[in-house]
Amino acid sequence: MTHAKPLPHDAARLHVTGAARYIDDIPTPRGTLHLAFGLSAIASGRILAIDLSMVRAAEGVVAVLQAEDLPSACDCSPSAHDEPLLSDGTLHYIGQPIFLVVARSHLAARKAAQLADIAYDKTSPILTIADALAANSRFEDGPRIWERGDPFPAISDARHQLDGSIDIGGQEHFYLEGQAALVFPQENADMVVHSSTQHPTEIQHKVAHALHLPMHAVRVETRRMGGGFGGKESQGNALAIACAVAAQATGQPCKMRYDRDDDFMITGKRHDFRISYQVGFDDQGQIAGLSFRQYARCGWAQDLSLPVCDRAMLHADNAYYLPTIRIESHRLRTNTQSATAFRGFGGPQGMVGIEAVMDQIAAYLGLDPLDVRRKNYYNAPSKKGRRRTPYGQIVRDFALHEMTDRLMDTSHYMERRNAIYQWNAKNPVLKRGLALTPVKFGISFTLTHLNQAGALVHVYQDGSISLNHGGTEMGQGLFQKVAQIAASRFGVGIDLVRITATDTSKVPNTSATAASSGSDLNGMAVAAACDTIRSRIAAHLAGKYGGTPRGVIFADGRVIAADANLSFAEAAQSAYEARVSLSSTGFYKTPKLKWDRLRGAGRPFFYYAYGAACSEVVIDTLTGEYRILRADLLHDAGASLNPALDIGQVEGGFVQGAGWLTMEELVWDNKGRLQTHAPATYKIPATGDTPPVFNVDLWDAPNPEATIYRSKAVGEPPFMLGISVWSALQQAVAATGTGQVHLNAPATPERVLAAVERVRDGN
Amino acid sequence: MDVSFLLNGESIALTGVDPTCTLLEWLRADRNLTGTKEGCNEGDCGACTVMMIDTDRRVAINACILLLPQLQGKSIRTIEAISAPDGKLHPVQDAMITHHGSQCGFCTPGFIVSMAVAHANGDKDAETALSGNLCRCTGYAPILRAARAASDMPVPEWMSDPSLPETPAEPLIPETAQSLADLYFANPDATLVAGATDVGLWVTKGLQKINSPIFLHQVAELNNVTQTDAGLRIGAGVTMDQMLLLMTDRHPSYAEMLRRYGSVQVRASATLGGNIANGSPIGDNPPPLMALGATLHLRQGNRRRDLVLEDFFLDYGKQDRAPGEFIEAVTVPDQPDRLAVYKLSKRFDQDISAVCGAFNIVVDAGQVSKACIAFGGMAGIPKRATAVENVLIGRPWNEDTIAATWDAWESDFSPLSDMRASADYRLTTARNMLTRYFIADIGGAVDLKEVTA
């Protein structure tokens, strides 16, 4: 079967030759115009006066648009209709678009955008969590609270109590291809939009809405993104709408791509969180009661913050059974970029909260943190009890006991832990740390209706297969996985299958390629479409050659019906000549979901994906600098659709997760200006940050739920394997003294040194 | 301006060139060669990497901050010419496919070019060769595997370097120090452009016009390195990759710092003179050069003068350099190696220093006989730790003496807080670097890079 084979990415050859086309590489007709936004220089207030005469007079400028020049408010929000394309006069963050320059070149547009003369009426911005709480500046009326039992008596009755708090920084997506869109105006006022987006249907919907067009007048095409990571779920809306508006106004094709600094300044990032907690536990560290407060800085607009914060709550347990639990979630509105989706979608922040609790309990009791973690694990499927999540879903296939055993064995956890203990005793300046942390991540959109997908499959009379589905390709290898599924369904080689660019005119009403759902949803939809066509071919051949349709075999590029043995092309030709339709849609919706987000109760997830990581670090106690020395990862991808692509997701997710918690630091100044707005100041991991010893393995067990070929989603879960690096840093810091370890994230060298100094001072 | 060079083997002769047009912009907009990508437009991500071939070397370089006049006399090979004209793939391309080294693919052409350059140069240190190429998808492991897998494959015949083009004289690209001196003396308001790793950003990010630029890369004398009685005289145009080689045996700690300076691409462009002349308080060469007692050789027309390096830096943004005066060379005195350079940054490779400390402490018979300590990132200029030096000199080389410097640090430095580090952290780590130097000197383990799992 073609699925399960470790085939390379479908576009690998195009990638390595530079022939893969991204938005800015699409040939454009002469006369194509280029766009840039003029941005707010203040975080909060109003525009008193604006003079754009210099902008209009600048070389190459064709038009300059303000809010009043637009055909509508041109709302860009994916949720609450609170993001006008251009400021209506009020300003909410530094970087908010105020006006739109349309010019003959990208550079001319950028240069002109600098020339505005704007007088502001500044008000005091709300920037920090403390500012927002003081001003009661939030989304929704008050905090969302989910409870199971009453944790407070359980905490106070427990043998031990602790409390604490951790700050967790945000993260810039740093997709290598910045946001980009290109719009070709059509006859009849229609628009064709090329967008670097994870959500073509949303782009279609927002462009149509902005221009007062029905959705059928807008066609959106996305061949590939140069990285997405959640940053292209909603953040591409503004560029596509701007291009469509300008294309409508000028009649010319319009292109917009953000310069990297603009991309940092305008677009949303991962939510930063503060999580405080109170916990009660016994002598072995088993938790009796736990109360979390999660504070999320959501930025100026709602965007996807509510489901992000829901998912943080949904992962406050990570892999641990919590008999009584209260989670209070504050969604705070601040005068900063509107925080948005980012791989894990709040889950990582929720998990760091409980992993901080685990480390603190272990330190307090003098136990190995892994023992405390295991003591709190959900029960294995074979055991009764301790399987119900705080929101009521039963964890039916909890694989982490066995996975932890295997990883402890392959990573030599115990031997290394003892060796490190001895090494640290002999080394006053350098200290090593080792940590093994688990991941349990819920798979499905928590907004239940999004869990659907469509596909369109054509078989041509020469036997070649054209495939389309609602998912988008951002590097994760979705297209190849889905092509492998189609090839398996028809029993042909992958070369017969061509996947075409995601296109809203081929498959309508699609969901974002997000929540790790791409292959689960679209793979099933494609399989359904393929099966429809295959059944028709089988019925035709059974009629022609005898036997039953069910008896027709599609394998190894052949189709066997009774005594006839045809190539797939011959079978297709035969069906075509018999006037059998060789085209079909396919549809899938995830079963078993039932979720009440206000009560925090039900079954939000079809299943869970699991993983575990063991990381070793060394720190320098004089400067706080550190290196990752080794990482061993074991990840559950179910019965993998393509082990090579899945391992790629695991390795890449781990490094991205480790980057989030270590070197990637977003710094805003006290006026609300993002100081780290380019790779010169915002550092993502480079080659030297990959662990020199890096062992990655898949836990290759079939998904007990009936997913496509019993695989599991793999996009987001491995990101949280990076938490092991942060935990290992905590262990290394703990080796420097007797004080309590408190290492906020990102654990920059400066924060590591501060943590070392506190531990050394014994407080 | 008129500029002549080779592009993928084809002779290009451009006239009326806008000197601020970048190679990347020209490739993508004028030549429709869109395989070379724009990731950051400031030389930090490597997505725009191209191969540049000069008379004596073949380097990877960032096209986004490379101005067209810098191509004069060079040969450029882009991603489109890494595979054979008939489509046959280069070994590094094959290996990247086999090892699943691309995911979204946007960074991939830049990686491929960097890999092809390292492959052609026989450079097997893939981690360093690729440290200037950012990838957000893979976590690099498969890319490093691919580079290693391809490293022993022969260089394909189609990768042979063409002979470089003849270049007609272009007044703004002088070829001798004398013509540069005359030109700059006559046009003291001109902007000198060497590697453009800084000036390039004035163009791409500052959106500035460059005031009558003079391009330095063809001035032969600026690339000279000579051993003199006073020490090693290094031309101001010597690039950081060459500087790294010069320091490898003389002062290995300096070389190791340079291995983390910028990236391969930046080191191939950035010059010693540029790093000093721009007066940045966080340039990484001034601290070690000051600690080594380096002398600057300045020239204005036909007037030459020498200056102890630290005297060049007067105040933030202000240097002791007259209009029309330029740095010709730097002399590093010969001396036994006692230098340690400590570069502190959030990311280990390719990051700007929060603090860069250079220590050159000589101990005779248990007593400190000489102490030269200089820092970047601790003041508005690169600065000596004079008060600390004075505490050290003449005292026994022990922990008590280190402790005795405590107060002197604050009289030497009152650093700022910014997005890279707080003032407190800078001061603390500066102090601790002296401790590190001492512990290293008595044989203690202080080097993270020497620890393995």
CATH class of the largest domain in chain B: Alpha Beta
Please tell me the CATH architecture of the largest domain in chain B by its name: 2-Layer Sandwich
Assembly type of the shown chains?
heterodimer
Largest sheet of chain A: 8 strands, mixed
Mean pLDDT of chain B: 97
Strand order across the largest sheet of chain A: 3-5-1-12-9-10-11-20
Domain count of chain B: 2
Report what the structure shows.
The complex is a heterodimer of chains A (763) and B (453). With 763 residues, chain A is α+β, with helices and mostly antiparallel strands. In chain A, strand 18, helix 14 and strand 19 (497-499) form a beta-alpha-beta unit. The longest helix of chain A has 28 residues, at 518-545. Chain B is of the alpha+beta class. The model of chain B has no long low-confidence stretch (mean pLDDT 97). Chain B has helices at residues 23-30, 91-98, 108-121, 126-129, 141-150, 177-186, 199-204, 240-250, 252-259, 264-269, 272-277, 286-291, 309-312, 386-392, 399-404, 406-412, 423-441; strands at 3-7, 10-14, 49-53, 58-62, 75-77, 191-193, 213-215, 225-228, 231-235, 295-300, 303-308, 313-315, 318-319, 325-332, 339-344, 355-364, 367-376, 383-384. The termini of chain B are far apart.
